[in-house]
Specification:
With 225 residues, the chain is mainly alpha-helical. It contains five helices and five strands, in the order βααββαββαα.
Length: 225
């Protein structure tokens, strides 16, 4: 199972950028068929104004809204990588690999990370106690980022369910152990009672023999003459 971000950050901005690009392409296509000199002059004026408002980013001249979008992509890239790093830092023992990213190409031609994921192993331990420990580590890893994604909450919920099942198994095992302990204690008590009974009988028999011997004994008295 994976934990991480899945492109929730930039989808709206990405759609806006695609829409803007399509509109720009349509305008360029229609201008090829327009021979009116006044419109051509207007386009030239717009191009001059456009150049005045552009900014060079990574070797490309970008308009103000494009620059803003690049800045947003830069911020998203940092947040996504910090998000996945938090998963890895808190997931010792349960994170089974490094982070992988999905990228979006910005108006400047650079690729920015806009989604990411970290592989995590949701597995039971050899004992309920070990399973509980694993589950808690998974929850810690899933909820480590400051802004957990819906997928992170889903993974945490699965781990908590696994912990709940392990606790049920743990309770059943303890109940069985207690039952076996009580049974063993009862058997020991029966053995002790039986031993006490025979010891009492032996003492009673010895006392009875002693009493009988005392009753049968007649001291002899001799008188010298």
């Amino acid at each position: 199972m994976q934990i991480g971000n899945f492109g929730f950050y930039s989808q709206n901005n990405l759609n806006v950028w695609k829409e803007k690009t399509n509109i720009s392409q349509n305008l360029e296509t229609s201008s090829k068929f327009n021979k009116d000199s006044s419109i051509q002059n207007t386009n030239e004026d717009k191009e001059k104004n456009k150049n005045k408002n552009t900014q060079n980013i990574n070797g490309k001249e970008l308009e103000a809204d494009e620059v803003q979008y690049v800045r947003e992509l830069e911020s998203i890239d940092r947040n996504v990588k910090a998000h996945e790093a938090a998963h890895i830092a808190a997931g010792a023992g349960v994170v089974s690999g490094g982070a992988s990213y999905g990228y979006t190409r910005g108006p400047d031609g650079k690729m920015y990370a806009t989604s990411g994921e970290v592989p995590i192993s949701i597995k039971k331990g050899s004992t309920p106690e070990e399973t509980i420990q694993n589950a808690r580590q998974i929850v810690a890893a899933a909820m480590a980022p400051a802004d957990p994604s819906p997928q992170d909450y889903k993974v945490a919920a699965s781990a908590m369910q696994m912990e709940s099942q392990a606790r049920t198994e743990q309770a059943q095992e303890r109940a069985k152990e207690n039952e076996e302990l009580l049974k063993k204690q009862e058997e020991q008590k029966q053995q002790e009672d039986k031993k006490t009974f025979f010891n009492d009988k032996k003492r009673e028999y010895a006392l009875q023999i002693y009493t009988q011997n005392q009753s049968a004994y007649q001291p002899r008295v001799e008188i010298a003459g």
